[in-house]
Amino acid sequence: MTREGEGERPDPLAEVSRATIAISVLAEDLERARRLIDENRWEEEEGHLIIFVNGLHFLLGDKTLQALDCDHDSLGREVERLTHELMDYQSMYAAMKYKAFTLSEQKYVLEGNVSGLEAADRFAIARIKQFRRDEEALRARLTELEEENARLRRDLGVDETAIRLRRDDQGVRRRSRWPWKR
User: Fold this and answer.
1) pTM (2 d.p.)
2) Mean pLDDT per 10-residue segment, the chain (182 residues)
3) Could you tell me if residue 41 is left (phi over 0), alpha (psi between -120 and 50 degrees) or otherwise beta?
C-alpha cells in the first residue's frame, strides 16, 4: 500500500526463504506459549512462529527507538512512519481476519453439506438394500406362483404352453399405446 508522498514499498514476502532453528527455553515459558497458542486457536508451528516474529519485531523496534537521537523532528518522523506501518498492518490484519471469518463460514457450510450428503448416501444405500430384498422376495413369490400355476394346470389337464407369463428379462417387446410409435 502506498500513501501520498511515499514511494512504492517492496513486497515483504516477494523473496521469502525459510530456515529452521532449535532452541532451548524454560519449561514455564514454553507452557505460557502453548497456552497462548491454544487461546488464539493457532496451529502449534504457526503459533511458535508468530510468537518468535512478534518478539523479534518488538526488539527491532525498541532498538530503532533507542538509536534515535532525542531530536523531536527525527522522533516525530519515526513515530509517523511507525504509525503508517501500524495502519498498514492493521488493514492487512483486518482483511485477513475477515477472510478467515468468511472461510470459516464456508467451511461450516461445506461441513453441513458433506454431512447432508453422507446422510443421503446412507439413506440411499439402505433403500437400495431394501429394494434388493423386496425384489428377491418378489422373485421368490413369482417362482412359487408359477410352480403353483403349473401344478394347477397339470391337475386340470391344461397344456402348460398355452398360457405362459413373460418376464421383462426375456426380451418382451412392448407395443406403444400411441399408434404412430408402433
Assistant:
1) 0.37
2) 49 65 84 87 82 76 68 76 83 78 90 94 95 95 93 79 55 57 52
3) left
